[in-house]
Specification:
The chain has about 240 residues and is an alpha/beta fold. The protein contains nine helices and seven strands. Helix 3 packs across helix 4 (about 85-90). About 40% of the residues are buried.
Length: about 240
């Protein structure tokens, strides 16, 4: 056990309520983050004393804005935040943890296997390279990955038509949304909002930026890339193209 792991506090009572019958798994996940997560550089040792409030519960309450029985892609999942807490609270969701770094995907695969998260798949790759490789999803999530404009460029193209990006942000959420307005329009956004979730669970409340797309997720460029990927897929299934005589 690392010195940091010894700093992991007892779970607050709210954790038992939020995670319900998966509380024991949430506790095991917190212990893994505090130990292996710190040793492997996935989280900083100073985060361990506030793992429950600042990380697990802060992410878990994202379930409040996600519909039932939908597919979710957690972009830049890192140590599994928010994807794993979300999977523990919502077994009805089909969740893909998308992460480009091998050491992180290795950790995620270990956690998924250990906790028996049958509704979770780990994929190694960059979001901008996944268009046409992953099936479109209903919801894209993320947390502290990048500024909203850049994050939207990665995440919105992965959505199905009329899907939604729901990302956890901090105090700058409204400012980021205003700054990204033009980019979001180009990327096919039709509605945006900032909401707070986690009443009675976390203080301060978790801030979520919601971006709903229309018929063209990711805009014109994404549509072009999507069509190109589809043609390449059809060509691959049909074998090598025939030569003209």
């Amino acid at each position: 056990m690392t010195e940091a792991a010894a700093e992991l506090p007892a779970p607050p009572e709210q954790a038992r309520t939020v995670f319900g019958d998966r509380f024991a798994d949430a506790l095991r996940y917190a212990e893994l983050l505090a130990d292996a997560g710190v040793r492997r550089g996935l989280i900083g040792p100073r985060e361990v004393p506030r793992l429950w409030e600042r990380h697990l519960l802060n992410c878990a309450v994202l379930y409040e804005v996600i519909d039932e029985d939908v597919s979710v892609c957690d972009v830049g999942s890192g140590a599994g935040l928010p994807g794993i807490p979300l999977a523990l609270t919502r077994p009805d969701l089909r969740i893909t943890l998308l992460e480009p770094l091998l050491r992180r995907t290795t950790f995620l695969e270990e956690v998924v296997k250990l906790l028996g998260l049958t509704n979770v798949t780990v994929v190694r790759g960059r979001a901008e390279e996944m268009l046409g490789k992953l099936p479109p999803v209903d919801v894209v999530t993320a947390r502290a990955v990048a500024p909203l404009e850049r994050l939207a460029g990665w995440g919105l193209p992965l959505l199905r038509p009329h899907g939604e990006m729901a990302v956890l942000k901090g105090d700058t959420a409204l400012d980021e949304l205003k700054a990204a307005r033009a980019a979001l329009d180009r990327l096919g956004a039709v509605d945006t909002s900032v909401v707070q979730v986690g009443e009675g669970v976390v203080d301060p409340l978790s801030t979520v930026v919601r971006v709903v797309v229309g018929e063209s997720p990711g805009g014109v460029r994404a549509a072009t890339r999507r069509a190109k990927a589809a043609r390449a897929s059809r060509s691959g299934r049909g074998g090598a193209p025939r030569r003209r005589r």
